[in-house]
Amino acid sequence: MSAISSNTGDPPRGATRRAYRRLDFAWVGLVPFLAFTAFFLIGPVLYLVVGAFQNPNGDYTFANIVNLFSPQILRAYQLSLEISFASAVTGTVAGFLLAYAIVHGGLPKWIRPAVATFSGVASNFAGIPLAFAFIATLGRIGMVTSFLRETLGINIYAMGFNLFSFWGLTLTYLYFQLALMVLIITPAVDGLKSEWREAASMLGASSMQYWRKVALPVLMPSIMGCFLLLFANAFGTIATAYALTGSQLNIVPILLFAQIRGNVLYNPNLGYALAFGMIVITALSNVLYLVLRARAERWQR
Amino acid sequence: MKRSRINATAIVVVAALFFVLPLVATLLFSLSMKRGVWSLEAYRVVFADSRFVDALTYSLVVAIVTILLGALLVVPSAYWVRLRFPRLRPLFEFLSLLPLVIPPIVLVFGYIRFYNSSSILPLTASETGTNVLLVLGYVALSLPYMYRAVDTGMAAVDIRTLTEAAESLGAGRRTILMSVIFPNVRASVLSGAFITFAIVMGEFVFASLLNRDTFGPYLALIGQNRAYEPSALAFMAFLFTWTCMGMMQLFARRRPRRRRNRRPFASPSERPVA
């Protein structure tokens, strides 16, 4: 009886016997979901993880992990990490500034919901269409490129800009990164109470001191957490990069894509190790994000 | 105070330019296929391509099946966990968030290996099997959004009282789920459905690596071979995303409690509990 009431609160009167019988089979209701996650999330990923520690004959080995540190793969990881880092840093800074401006900037009331709604859309406007949009804007014959060249006489491609390069890709990623940052940091910026600022200035603190001693320390866990989320977000993305640069930029997801298509590493198990490395990086940043979010929530009560 | 407002205005203006310029440029670019005049030529070419229609139709079917299966999996599970196994809620939430941690390309790589033609369940060996795998993969991809939406929706209605009321009226499990629980979380399911729709319609990696001719691979193909059509497609995709997200927010905001009293089973939750 006690087991039942702890589960269902107050069981309907007179239903005790039925409730007992139901409880015995209650776990059956959990099976579909658990089976689905086992077969379509955990199982396949576990298969890759185990394969990463095996050689083609099925013997256990660390050789694949060691081979990840070969120059070609190491370069891919390095480039991936650099692009994710660059787009996460720019996204974090720009997104924070925008969020602060719409929350505390004293702007007209309609600005905030407008920016928030647009960010909701833009954070989901990724993948191939986003690449197309940036090609139409800043590609060699894009509208902005042509406008700058023909009207203002500035040829950005002659000045070294190239959309199909590291910084071009970073700028394109910034589109959804900035939007995502605004969405996830706004609650934390909201938690920044105006009383703190007033208290600080009454005690004679300058604006700079307020930021360095009050606002930033309070916001830091949130900002770092959001940064990690943006980082993982960029690290796993492939469609935008694929549509924009083809296989010009040798980032990890594109290398993995080529490996799945045509075994370009000539070693299936090395492919598993490549995937394993990706999981480790995204999992680490997500776990750190959760830790930092737990810390940040202390200030949002 | 005045200066901070000028700064804020500058930031918002720059951000607005960054957000809007690519859209305006895409629209203008898509209209300039004919030299010297604005025309809808690129859109005409896109719609005249039978592969476009085929890919779009296939993606639509996949998206609808994904949404139905996803709702069928998530609603009963979330309901059952909340009702009978509240202590397992963190586990289910964690499992539903896994697709955000595992990069999609890794997930589909796992599928290709796990379900290859020499495995116990050789889904990739046949056309039907691969279609099934694609749909189930999309169900997995949309799980975080669907589960979150439905679980939040269930938090807003008192499912325990509803269940007990229905039981005391003699309703069986299926009746409770279909006529009591489901109508009460319909708005949440719809809000999850629209984001699923947007994800499935634009998805590229799963479809490409499983060799399915959906909208995503079609976009990639056009992007490699054409100049103006891609921007027409991109602009339509943006409008499409906008519609889906708008609908999602519309349904996400609507509380089931505010609905008028139409279903007899829905009434107990709508009376304020003292």
TrEMBL record, chain A:
How is this protein positioned relative to the membrane?
A: Multi-pass membrane protein
Cell compartment(s), UniProt: Cell membrane
Name the CDD domains on file: TM_PBP2 (cd06261)
> InterPro entries from the xrefs?
MetI-like (IPR000515), MetI-like_sf (IPR035906)
Keyword Cell membrane recorded: yes
Query: What region holds the ABC transmembrane type-1 domain?
Result: 77-291
GO annotation terms (biological process): transmembrane transport
Key words of the record: Cell membrane, Membrane, Transmembrane, Transmembrane helix, Transport
The record's PROSITE patterns line, in alphabetical order, gives: ABC_TM1
GO cellular component terms attached to this protein's record: plasma membrane
Give the residue spans that cross the bilayer: 25-50, 83-103, 115-136, 156-189, 210-232, 238-258, 270-292
Predominant location: membrane
Query: Would you identify the family this protein belongs to, as annotated?
Result: Belongs to the binding-protein-dependent transport system permease family. CysTW subfamily.
Protein's UniProt name: ABC transporter permease subunit
Q: What is the lineage of its organism?
A: Bacteria, Pseudomonadati, Pseudomonadota, Alphaproteobacteria, Hyphomicrobiales
TrEMBL record, chain B:
Q: Which GO terms describe its biological process?
A: transmembrane transport
The organism sits in which domain of life? Answer: Bacteria
Q: Which Pfam families match?
A: BPD_transp_1
Q: Name one GO cellular component term.
A: plasma membrane
Topology relative to the membrane: Multi-pass membrane protein
Presence of keyword Cell cycle:
no
Q: What is its main location?
A: membrane
InterPro entries under this entry? Answer: MetI-like (IPR000515), MetI-like_sf (IPR035906)
Membrane-spanning segments: 55-79, 91-112, 132-150, 187-210, 230-252
Q: What are the ABC transmembrane type-1 domain coordinates in residue numbering?
A: 56-251
**Keywords attached to this entry:** Cell inner membrane, Cell membrane, Membrane, Transmembrane, Transmembrane helix, Transport
Q: Where located?
A: Cell inner membrane; Cell membrane
What family is this protein classified in? Belongs to the binding-protein-dependent transport system permease family.
* Name of the molecule in the record: ABC transporter permease
Q: Which organism is it from?
A: Pararhizobium mangrovi
